[in-house]
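User: I would dearly like some help making sense of a protein record. I have put the entry right below:
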Amino acid sequence: MDNQEIKKIQEAILSVLPVWYCNIEKPIKQVLDEKVSLDMYYCIKTLQCTGPLTMSELARYIKVPKQQMTKLVNRLVEQDFAKRIYDPSDRRIIKIELTDSALQYIDRFLAQDMECYQKLVEQMDETDRNDFFNAMNTLSRILYNIQNK
């Protein structure tokens, strides 16, 4: 890959960030429960997609230092959103797993969050909605592929 191609990708990412923040990220922050930070939400969604992970695996996914992940997981456990599962064959291995409370929280959050995005989606015509949906699926697939390498 040459520098021109990297520069084009860089410019595309940087040009979308301001509108992404205003239309996607900011509404999420406004709907989150005051006890749930965006990082906690990211942990919950990651565990929902991947299933149980070790602290190191989760830290790698979320791209935070292990010390910060420990604090995040402690907060998730305190709020009954996650539990620690000990490996019966090796007690040193601890996986983090979502609880039913976390799944219920996500369901409630999605219902509230839908209202936030309804305004955004209603501004799109059918072609733009389909393109946006396909773009989000493509972006998600690519970013998860990168994450898993």
